[in-house]
């Protein structure tokens, strides 16, 4: 199994011609009855050896954290030494399995472990410094820690170029911004964190979504690593956009959401579906599924289908998703063709299905 990045590397090395690589992509699109761009490919597993190495890496990381915890036990939060040991172990393993072997799944796990270890090490220090329950001090320290974590992610990107690293760094910067703004304005809102954080999360989600679109626009054919970077950015932005929207509709309150709110959820999901078709990314649809399930279950229950409400909800959602997947390319063309030309020029190419 070879990725587009592998094909590009083979072309650059002279192993195959650019024409042969294009012909191979066209052939794969034809036999799958869907253009490669619309499949939203990203590399995760190339063989079972990826899973084998990933399991070994997780065991090593857990062992490193346990050793750090044993040397410097934590009191109320994560152990600083445990986080540092995990980060150092993840970097060391990445030198071989990421830089030399280019193994996708282990690389993702090692990146997340490195970033998480860097942040956890600082979080242990934050807990010890903010023992007097000073929320503003804690938020400020978290902002600084998240910014340092973003810097560590940048160094990792420069060394290993793992596509998910950009998303991890963007999320770290977003957390830093949220924590810093919350520390400044929290007293103005009587320390009501929800009123502050939910809008901030939505704005950070918009910023990461815009960054994802910029990466997508640089590779409209989706044949390079830039497309993989955009995929992870979209995946990071989607829940940051979906959760605030459905929170404002009252879905996350846990009570009776009402017919109006349930209808609003469905309308928002349809709008997300149109956006997903236009940008050729499915992350928004996946991130909002839980909220749609809640809304449909409520509607079926309200209108008398009490015993079958879950089954009917699953049937509707499953049928809709499978239909959308089966007719993704023609539906996407219909949506994209309605957009202005300058917007179309920035979106991934809207393909025609290969001719028989």
Could you walk me through the main structural features you see in this protein, from its secondary elements to its overall organization?
The protein is an all-alpha fold and 356 residues long. The protein has three domains: 97 residues; 118 residues; 108 residues, no CATH class. The protein has 15 helices and no strands. The model has no long low-confidence stretch (mean pLDDT 83).
Number of domains: 3
So what's the overall shape? globular
- Major beta-sheet overview: none
Class based on secondary structure composition and strand pairing: mainly alpha
Strand content: under 5%
The beta-strand count equals 0
Short synopsis of the structure:
The protein has 356 residues and is an all-alpha fold. The chain has 15 helices and no strands.
Fold blueprint:
Blueprint: H1 4-13, H2 18-32, H3 48-71, H4 80-97, H5 104-129, H6 135-160, H7 164-185, H8 193-217, H9 225-248, H10 258-279, H11 283-287, H12 289-302, H13 309-326, H14 328-337, H15 341-344
Helix pairs in contact: 3-4, 3-5, 4-5, 5-6, 6-7, 7-8, 7-9, 8-9, 10-12, 12-13
């Amino acid at each position: 199994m070879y990725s587009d990045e592998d094909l590009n590397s083979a072309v650059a090395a002279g192993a195959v011609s650019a024409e042969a690589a294009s012909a191979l992509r066209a052939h794969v699109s034809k036999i799958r009855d869907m253009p490669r761009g619309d499949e939203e490919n990203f590399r995760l597993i190339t063989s079972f050896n990826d899973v084998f190495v990933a399991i070994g890496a997780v065991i090593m990381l857990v062992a490193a954290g346990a050793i750090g915890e044993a040397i410097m036990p934590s009191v109320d939060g994560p152990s600083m030494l445990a986080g540092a040991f995990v980060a150092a172990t993840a970097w060391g393993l990445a030198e071989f399995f990421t830089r030399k072997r280019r193994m996708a799944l282990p690389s993702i796990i090692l990146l997340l472990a490195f970033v998480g270890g860097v942040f956890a090490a600082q979080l242990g220090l934050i807990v010890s410094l903010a023992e007097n329950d000073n929320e503003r001090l804690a938020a400020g320290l978290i902002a600084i820690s998240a910014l340092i974590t973003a810097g560590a992610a940048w160094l990792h990107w420069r060394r290993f170029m793992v596509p998910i690293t950009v998303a991890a760094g963007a999320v770290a910067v977003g957390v830093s911004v949220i924590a810093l703004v919350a520390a400044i304005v929290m007293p103005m809102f009587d320390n009501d964190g929800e009123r502050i954080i939910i809008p901030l999360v939505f704005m950070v989600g918009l910023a990461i979504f815009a960054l994802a679109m910029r990466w997508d626009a640089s590779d409209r054919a989706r044949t390079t690593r830039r497309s993989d970077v955009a995929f992870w950015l979209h995946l990071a932005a989607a829940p940051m956009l979906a959760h605030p929207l459905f929170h404002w509709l009252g879905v996350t309150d846990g009570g009776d959401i009402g017919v109006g709110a349930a209808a609003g959820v469905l309308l928002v999901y349809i709008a997300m579906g149109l956006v997903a078709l236009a940008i050729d990314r499915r992350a928004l649809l996946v991130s909002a599924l839980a909220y749609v399930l809640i809304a449909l279950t409520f509607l079926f229950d309200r209108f008398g289908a009490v015993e079958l409400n879950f089954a009917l909800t699953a049937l509707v959602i499953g049928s809709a998703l499978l239909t959308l997947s089966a007719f993704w390319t023609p539906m996407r063309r219909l949506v994209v063709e309605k957009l202005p030309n300058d917007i179309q020029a920035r979106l991934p190419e809207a393909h025609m299905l290969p001719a028989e």
